[in-house]
């Protein structure tokens, strides 16, 4: 539902069931820091079939990919049997187990999927390079959205937080009203003379200091929301 509203959804997920896997548009498989596949999720089985790894009937594709990466799949075992040298011993078998990721990574680098991805990334890098040169010359910091857009969404989010946590808002309003009554009572009926001017300066200093200290409580929002942001 979120993706249909225009959101970009990124999953870092371990062994999803098929009903979840079939919802993916793009799939990236990583092992030991190396990309083994990146492309449309629907073409993943076809790609692995083209390099000699057939998915068994009724097998979950996500489990199948993990089995291949870990060297546990029957497809991997069959591939080893087909490519094992006649005069090789146990050392060759151990090397085959450790090099599954390297073989899959090399096959991906030789695939058309990698070439198309590399071309697309090259175009993006060229575009970013020209934008960066312009921004450095102009000494300007550019954002994806303008200041008014950022202000609108941040204000909307803050307003929602206030509405969803009315206790804090009510307490803040009550404290402000009580302080206003106290300050008003102390400085009520100040005369228009030299001492009156000093009293007014004192009241302004007190009110300003109180506002400064009360706004320090907003730091808590930055500490709490920073974790969500990161």
TrEMBL record:
Coiled coil: none annotated. Residues 149-229 form the ABC-2 type transporter transmembrane domain. Keywords: Membrane, Transmembrane, Transmembrane helix, Transport. Pfam families: ABC2_membrane, ABC2_membrane_7. Residues 14-78 form the ABC transporter family G domain. It comes from the Eukaryota. InterPro entries: ABC2_TM, ABCG_dom, ABCG_transporters. It is found in: Membrane. One of its GO terms (cellular component) is plasma membrane. Its main location: membrane. Signal peptide: none annotated. It is a multi-pass membrane protein. GO terms for molecular function: ABC-type transporter activity. The chain crosses the membrane at residues 170-190. Belongs to the ABC transporter superfamily. ABCG family. Eye pigment precursor importer (TC 3.A.1.204) subfamily. This is ABCG2 protein. It comes from Centropus bengalensis (lesser coucal).
């Amino acid at each position: 539902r979120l993706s249909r509203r225009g959101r970009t959804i990124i999953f870092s997920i371990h062994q999803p069931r098929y009903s979840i896997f079939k919802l993916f548009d793009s799939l990236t498989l990583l092992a030991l820091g190396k990309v083994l596949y990146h492309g449309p999720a629907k073409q993943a089985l076809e790609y692995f079939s083209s390099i000699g790894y057939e998915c068994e009937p009724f097998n979950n594709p996500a489990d199948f990919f993990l089995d291949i990466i870990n060297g546990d799949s029957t497809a991997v075992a069959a591939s080893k049997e087909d490519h094992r040298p006649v005069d090789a011993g146990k050392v060759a078998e151990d090397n085959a187990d450790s090099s599954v990721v390297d073989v899959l990574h090399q096959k991906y680098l030789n695939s058309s999927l990698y070439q198309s991805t590399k071309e697309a990334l090259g175009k993006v890098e060229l575009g970013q390079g020209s934008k960066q040169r312009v921004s450095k010359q102009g000494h300007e910091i550019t954002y994806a959205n303008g200041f008014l857009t950022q202000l609108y969404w941040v204000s909307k989010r803050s307003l929602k937080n206030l509405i969803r946590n009315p206790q804090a808002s009510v307490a803040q309003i009550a404290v402000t009203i009580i302080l206003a009554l106290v300050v008003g009572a102390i400085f009520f009926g100040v005369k228009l003379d030299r001492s009156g001017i000093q009293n007014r300066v004192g009241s302004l200093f007190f009110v300003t200091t109180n506002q400064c200290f009360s706004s320090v409580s907003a730091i808590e929002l930055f500490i709490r929301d920073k974790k969500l942001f990161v």
